Amino acid sequence: MADTICTGAPLTIQGLKECLREMDGKSIRESFDLIRSGKMKAYERAVTSEDAKEGVKAFAEKRKANFRGV
After folding, report:
1. CA dist., res. 26 & res. 69, Å (int)
2. Among 8, 11, 26, 54, which lies 20 to 30 A Cα-Cα from 62?
3. Alpha carbons 49 and 70: distance in angstroms, whole number
4. 2 pLDDT band (50/70/90 cuts)?
5. Taking all residues of the chain, what is their mean pLDDT, rounded to a whole number?
6. In 3D, which of 49, 39, 48 has the Cα closest to residue 18?
7. How far apart are CA 59 and CA 63, in angstroms?
8. Are 46 and 69 in contact (CB under 8 A)?
9. What is the pTM of this model?
10. Which are the contacts of 40, defined by CB distance < 8 A and separation ≥ 6?
11. What letters, b where the CB count within 10 A reaches 16 and e where it falls short, cover 26-65?
12. Distances, alpha carbon 55 to alpha carbons 26, 34, 39, 63, 68, in Å
């Protein structure tokens, strides 16, 4: 499982870790509101990154993504 995680975009992994940490113990509604609040900086950075665009493009082109951490 760790090998699979390591192939992901670094910013996305940081964002996911932040989400899991901040959502622990919260309801689904509270967690959703938190994601949409803009308060989670690592998450916001991940979804607006060049890596996010690269991931979508690579998926559409059926190729392996080249994540650069930007």
Report:
1. 29
2. 11
3. 6
4. confident
5. 93
6. 39
7. 6
8. no
9. 0.76
10. 15, 18, 19, 22, 34
11. eeeeebeebbeeeebebbebbeebebbebbeeeeeeeeeb
12. 29, 24, 24, 9, 11
